[in-house]
Design goal:
This protein folds into two domains: 147 residues, no CATH class; 201 residues, TIM Barrel, CATH 3.20.20.370. The protein is 47% helix and 10% strand. Helix 2 packs across helix 6. The longest helix is centred in the middle third of the chain and has 24 residues. Strands 1, 2, 3, 4, 5, 6, 7, 8 and 9 form a nine-stranded parallel sheet that branches. It is of the alpha/beta class and 375 residues long. It comes from Pseudomonas helleri. InterPro entries: Glyco_hydro/deAcase_b/a-brl (IPR011330), NODB_dom (IPR002509), Polysacc_deacetylase_ArnD (IPR050248). This is Polysaccharide deacetylase family protein. One of its GO terms (molecular function) is hydrolase activity, acting on carbon-nitrogen (but not peptide) bonds. Keywords: Signal.
Length: 375
């Protein structure tokens, strides 16, 4: 769905383009040790950071025509790509500095990095030896990070004609990049499902884990569920959770004439039915919103909540396991942030338990959902 929308919108703006590749994923079983301590989480984090940094550095050797060919686009926004690259380097440096604080406990993937120049130097010569303990992970990881980097550069290349989560458009927006190290928050889009569906399973599962998440609901789905149940049933469904809005229907709000009405109607319904759960947050479907929408959101007391870790669980090419493995790899790379799943996808029933089990001993924190509304 997301690919089709990106493609159709860009066709109108700039002519034919090639469809993007399938989302990147990495088989985490290629990593030879469990993340059974904070130090071992840092080892894996350093490894993913250096691999991505190497891919980023290599990409800078391509000229504009080379990037067009690699990204499958006829027209690209080089200024936006350069800005994204600069931001990525800053994040990589900050994250590596966090990750190397445990080098006295395990020196794997610990190299001399104290500034941007030394990070770029280490990224340029980074490689995993053929006899390394980590050799089975090295090639799959390199492939993952090249493809994931292409995802990010493609989003930048298509902007501003197609907005996305790749960049903030104003002070009323956030994406989780400013969260504390090792702190993550779960978010779920596009619900609720029909009675007895994945939303019911998920909210019950989170309560059993003593966890909370932010659910960005669609007005029409919430109304359909309300028509078949009651206010009380919906309040029980979302007990202990936070509820933001994603508009009245899952449709890009960047070129939709009635986008403001979509936001207002869904917000009014959530406030009416779930006043104790409501948080003043809007998540744009596909990450698409108007560049001049900031004044509207500010007037409504709303913030735009994007994300920096995308499960890609809507992609039919990814299994639940692959989606979970992708999320964990990006958690190791970015070390904090907002994780985007869809509670309309059954994949989350296995992806989320696997993710929590894989990280239970790694020293991570899961932020309570109320903190998101307080941004």
């Amino acid at each position: 769905m997301r690919i089709a929308l990106f493609l159709s919108a860009w066709l109108v703006c700039l002519g034919a383009v090639a469809a993007p590749n399938d989302p990147a994923t990495l088989d985490r079983t290629t990593w030879p040790e469990p993340l059974s301590s904070p130090a071992l989480f840092d080892v894996a984090s350093r490894a993913e950071i250096l691999t991505f940094a190497h891919a980023l550095l290599v990409s800078e050797g391509l000229d504009e025509n080379g990037l067009k060919e690699r990204l499958g686009l006829k027209v690209i926004n080089m200024d936006a790509i350069d800005k994204v690259r600069q931001r990525l380097w800053q994040r990589l440096l900050a994250n590596y500095n966090f990750a190397q604080q445990s080098c006295d406990q395990d020196a794997s993937f610990c190299y001399y990095v104290e500034d941007m120049a030394s990070l770029r130097e280490q990224a340029g010569k980074f490689e995993v030896a053929d006899d390394s303990f980590y050799v089975k992970w090295a090639e799959p990881s390199a492939g993952f990070h090249r493809r994931y980097l292409d995802e990010q550069l493609r989003l930048a290349a298509l902007s501003p004609q197609i907005s996305s989560e790749i960049a903030l458009l104003g002070d009323q927006e956030f994406n989780g990049e400013d969260m504390h190290d090792r702190l993550f928050m779960l978010t779920f889009d596009s619900g609720p499902t029909v009675i007895g569906g994945t939303t019911d399973w998920l909210t019950d599962y989170l309560r059993k884990q003593s966890m909370s998440a932010t659910f960005f609901v669609l007005g029409n789905s919430l109304k359909a569920r309300l028509d078949k149940s009651s206010d009380q049933a919906l309040r029980a469904l979302y007990k202990g959770q936070c509820v933001g809005v994603q508009g009245w229907e899952y449709r890009a709000h960047s070129h939709w004439q009635n986008w403001q009405d979509s936001v207002l109607r869904s917000t009014a319904l959530v406030k009416q039915v779930l006043p104790q759960n409501y948080v003043p947050l809007f998540r744009p479907p596909y990450g698409q919103r108007r560049a001049d929408s900031g004044a509207f959101f500010e007037s409504q007391g709303l913030q735009v909540a994007l994300w920096n870790i995308d499960s890609q669980d809507l992609a039919g090419s990814l299994t639940a396991e692959q989606s979970a493995h992708r999320v964990l790899t990006l958690m190791l790379l970015w070390r904090h942030g907002l994780i985007a799943f869809h509670d309309t996808q059954d994949k989350v029933r296995s992806a989320l338990p696997w993710l929590l089990k894989a990280t239970v001993q790694s020293g991570l924190g899961w932020e309570e959902c109320e903190a998101l509304g307080a941004q």
